Predict the structure of Glucose-fructose oxidoreductase.
Amino acid sequence: MELDRRDFVLSAAALTLGAPACAAQRGDGKLGYAIVGLGSYGLGMIIPQFKNCEHSRLAAVVSGDPAKARRVADEHGLPARSIYSYADFDRIRDNPDVDIVYVCLPNAMHAEYTIRAARAGKHVMCEKPMAVSVAEAESMIAACRQAKRKLMIGYRCHFEPFNLEAMRLAHTGAAGKIRYVRSEHGFVQGDPSRWRLKRALSGGGSLMDMGVYSLQAARYMTGEEPVAVTARESTDRSDPRFREVEDMIEWTLEFPSGALAGCQSMYSANQNRILLMGDKGRIELEPATRYEGNRMWTGKDGREQAVSPPPGPARTQFAGQLDHLVQCVRTGAEPIVSGEEGLRDMRIVEAIYRSAREGRTIRLDGRA
Ligand code: NAD
């Protein structure tokens, strides 16, 4: 299955299927993205990636800061009619240059802007975590389905060469029968006034941010869905950063094969790691899920060997992600990281919080 996934992702560049009329009218064949939220990720990471894309272009910006929006639009040659505020965002319905809306806002705003985008007839790329609750995630999927529009979650690691190679090795038995996965992700939070530390905007603490990478890694490395979770939280509530959200949380996932995953996230130390142990060896990544500079090696009988992924298209994980959704729009295929994939994570996230709160194991397979 993962080979199919990788082949599909890597062959996306080769597809030259018919583009919608608006792209054809523009003559470049690329589909247009509107970036909603000109913050550190939307402006700092995503917008600079369009130059690496084969099928995607920047078509509009949506911001609460008119001067910043104008500056970014000028830098990228966008016309004034392609600048939107949050209040007049729904006018985007009338902009034929925009095919896809990319939601790069605080977590609690993802549902609203995804649903408004779908109702405006646009496809949606939504950042992780997909939403702040299962109920919101379900309403986002329903809105996109009703509008017959694609919904993809910004899980960039599914387009990152080391993570793709680690999945391929794990799923083809390079480490033998998978027994255990460990994944830890964290960084040191500073300013207590940041939205990530405000529950109303973040939906939670480190789990809703870096914890999503640990959870995703456990699922994509095992290739299984967990049947139970047991979690524990440790937060110094006298620390002004952690009055509203958790600092450290760890959780153990149990998989049908008997494999376990020990996952963790925190806001008080920097870490970024994935380790898989099988009965014939191990696969390690550290750093594992950074924007660049990831490293991987395999281990067997006390020997370690560095692994480089096979050469693929000279695209970054971000460009691969942006172009993948375009190809899905063109071909009608479901994104490999669809809204349903985001919803699966949200269900587990809610169970992790519940387990930590109630001090007991929560079943995810409906069994008592
Ligand atoms: P940020 O704080 O740098 O940017 C947030 C943007 O939202 C800003 O432009 C801000 O002005 C705007 N905004 C609108 N209403 C706001 C409000 N009420 N409060 C605060 N900001 C408001 O955050 P970011 O790091 O760009 O994160 C945005 C989203 O992207 C989050 O969901 C985050 O999880 C995700 N993200 C993903 C990755 C990744 O690697 N996939 C990396 C970083 C962030």
Observations:
- The two ends are 31 Å apart (CA to CA).
- The chain has a mean pLDDT of 93.
